[in-house]
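[step 3/7] inverse_fold.run input=structure_tokens len=215
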């Protein structure tokens, strides 16, 4: 489990690709201070397992499903990546519940500065608009963010100066892909409601929400 609060930006030092699988060696500092074999580290929001480490790097594998579902297949030597260690049991939730299980990739449609903020518009992967709403949470490249506008399959988010400096999101340009993880609570709520509506597959209405204790 992660919170979407990026601890540092690492750099891909080495990439070994074999078909649709990869081995990445990533340079880092903060996330290595207490690292152990088998630990989970979110790399651009993707939960990966540490298979080896030194004082300045860690090694991790990218499996075919992750290769296909995330933007990590674009990683090259020198690529900068957001890093976050799994949250300790006594840690703080500075962001929101983030699992590191990426749902797909969104495409940056626009990025522009408005005073001290960087406003980005992104096109979501198809079929996921039910998981987003204004003031809702979303993780982009592992960064916990608040959605401030939804228009069809497009969302708008705003990066404060600290987020611009401490994550890789400010480097994204129109046409770039970013990893997306939708709000876990939204996905479970939809699953429960659809199950409750079976077998008739009733539409989600206010009365259905009330019947199932959501209102």
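[step 3/7] decode complete -> sequence:
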């Amino acid at each position: 489990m992660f919170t979407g609060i990026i601890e540092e930006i690492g750099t891909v030092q080495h990439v070994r690709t074999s078909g649709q699988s990869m081995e990445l060696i990533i340079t880092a500092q903060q996330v290595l201070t207490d690292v152990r074999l088998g630990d989970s580290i979110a790399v651009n929001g993707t939960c990966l397992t540490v298979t080896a480490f030194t004082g300045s790097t860690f090694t991790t594998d990218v499996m075919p499903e992750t290769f296909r579902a995330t933007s990590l297949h674009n990683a090259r030597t020198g690529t900068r990546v957001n890093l976050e260690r799994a949250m300790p049991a006594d840690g703080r939730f500075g962001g929101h519940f983030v699992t590191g299980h990426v749902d797909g990739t969104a495409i940056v449609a626009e990025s522009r500065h408005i005073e001290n903020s960087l406003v980005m518009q992104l096109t979501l992967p198809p079929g996921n608009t039910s998981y987003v709403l204004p003031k809702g949470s979303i993780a982009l490249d592992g960064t916990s963010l608040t959605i401030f506008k939804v228009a069809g399959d497009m969302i708008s988010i705003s990066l404060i100066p600290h987020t611009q400096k401490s994550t890789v999101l400010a480097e994204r340009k129109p046409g770039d892909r970013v990893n997306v993880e939708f709000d876990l609570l939204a996905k479970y709520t939809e699953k429960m409601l659809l199950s409750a509506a079976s077998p008739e597959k009733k539409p989600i209405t206010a009365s259905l929400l009330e019947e199932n204790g959501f209102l």
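[step 4/7] annotate
The chain has four helices and twelve strands.
The chain has a mean pLDDT of 92.
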